[in-house]
Predict the structure.
Amino acid sequence: MDERTGLRSLGARCAHLAVLALAGGVTMSSACNVARRDHGASSPDPRSSTYVWRNVAVLGGGFVTGIVFNPSERGLVYLRTDIGGAYRWQPDAGAWTPLLDWVTPPDWNLHGVESLASDPTEPRRVYLAAGTYTNPDVSDGEILRSADYGRTWERTRLPFKMGGNEAGRGNGERLAVDPRESRILYFGSRRDGLWRSADFGVAWQRVESFPSFVDGSAAVAPTPGKFNYLSQAVGIVFVRFDPRGGRPGEPTRTLYVAASTANESLFRTLDGGTTWHAVPGQPLGLRPNRCALGSDGALFVTYGDEPGPNRMQDGAVFKLDTGSGVWTNVTPEKPTRGGRRFGYAAVAVDAHDPAIVVVTTWHRDQPFDEIFRSRDGGATWSALLERAQWDHSAAPYTATMRHHWMSDVEIDPFDPNHVLFTTGYGIWATHNAKDADSGAPTRWSFEDRGLEETVPLALASPPEGAHLISGLGDIDGFRHDDLTKSPAQGRFEGPRYKNTEWLDFAGRAPALLVRTGTTYGGDQIVGSYSRDGGSHWTSFPSEPPRPTGSRPFGTGPIAISSDGKVIAWTTDGNPPYATRDNGNTWQAVEGAPVGLRLVADRVDPDAFYGFSGTEGVLYASRNGGATVRVLRGGFPVSTQHRRYRDPDLRAVPDRPGELWLASGGVLFRLRAGSQNVVRIDSATEVSSIGFGKPAVAGAYPAIFVTGRVAGAYGVFRSDDEAASFVRLTDDAHQFARPSHVTGDPRIFGRVYFATDGRGIVYGDITP
């Protein structure tokens, strides 16, 4: 594709969409869409609702893949995440502001940020390369561009996919703005070469002169016809401008671009991209990860035997004197075959003193990953974290976490004492880095206020005790007694899980809870119960028998009867099993198909219900889960998805035998004692259902759904048994893929829901 054709074709496809980004805790008016059951028509609702949206505070919780300081505006810093969007630091608030909460469910793929660039000369401009996966089932990646610090965005779709949550996602930065001419940007793709824009990111064309490369572009050789993590292409990992020696008013002529290959990987142009050559004398045998260019022309490059974030077994740090062309191995600690095996991830150079350099290790587990600091341009190094002091007070759960996946480290260009580094669960910051020069310990704090990247997998709001209990991916789960603070007790006390995937409480004895999940260690019991509202947990003494060939751990949905005496658990590959002695023994539920998820009636202790999405059949038990029988068939079939709970069957609080079902996106109201089924045609693409306090005491509970009503996506509430719905979210607050919705039984209007990487969001009606 030549430049003119590229500008025409991609410019024509550019979508100019201005959308507002959420500033945490901002009150906004919601459009009130009313949809009638009978014919699906909608009209403005005279009852206006305004909602304020906040995160349930956990702090961090996911992989921060990159940090970008702007070199010309003090305090302007951005970060990107693998699945949770991008954020901008607000110095006045001491918090991070999310920038992509406007992303709608159809565009959810944009929430994974492949790379980020802040214009060094026009700091209001910021760019994101957005796209979470490269598999065939998702949309192509996009360049998002903003001229107001990320408050509003315009979009350009590119003709290839990006991998913000794939191998090499901690490399970078792949996207860069020319520091001499802001209209020019470069982006390095995973499979499709190097791309250039000459109009502030509106239109893009491929740089045909850049060398093609295949060898080493994937973590391992792809398997034909099969998509998996190990066959993901990594491609170009960073683009770096060298503005030194350029002519005023002209674009930068010298650029370095690196590809993830163990062969010749670093390329340079000296004529603004017209011709490219491999940099002579470069090291071979390892893949480049990141680089940093000092004001003296020294280019530092980190290397590993793989791109991360999987385990590295080898790595190095090299320094190129760009003036003389001499390469020097400046690796702080060399991995050894008989000793520690690890790689190097990130590197940063002090903007005003090129002798100050910091680098991070990758997978140096014993005793831990380290930051090495040099005061002489890499000739000698000292360890920063050996004697570090850690402040876990902002997020007590981090005391049990090991800093890992340190894919980026950055030195504040306005304050060399201020250093940030990323982890798989957030960022750490120090404000006394230079004290290490005198042997004093560096002090690190978890400065993640406003940054919420957890992936909630289960939410429960009982009628007493804590207002919210959550199950999360990677960091277990929490009892939230104060929604504004990361829980003081840290994660669940008792058996420690990697993921808590299912939660339930007894409808008439809500201090009794059960949960299941997956473990870090493999073959362990992964179900437990609590008798004190989720503060302490006890493992079941046993679990249901595993079918032949099952995975080495049990998981799956769990339910507890309204009186807490019966627990029903469906482990992988099994029909449901029930226990009446807190897991000492388990009995198969007769008549139940494999994979049937049971839910407990919230009032009747003998009643359980189950829905088979593959059959489109509703089942019921009247004897405490001993047996089930078919209650009704003919529902839309649906593929069960563990995270999004489709199908989603819910029993109504204080209403025995009353059920709501979402299957295949269709919403139904059911009564277990009747053949009457009401299909709610006004709500479509419904993925989750929840209930909250009614508008009037004694009335039917408020119904919350995530889905689409009257053509609009969002979170909706009905106060009249689904005769009408009020849209609670708006176009600026979509949160990509809301799910696991539940209301609060004690606060009218309050709603909680999960996101796919933006944490737990809750909304209250503004007084």
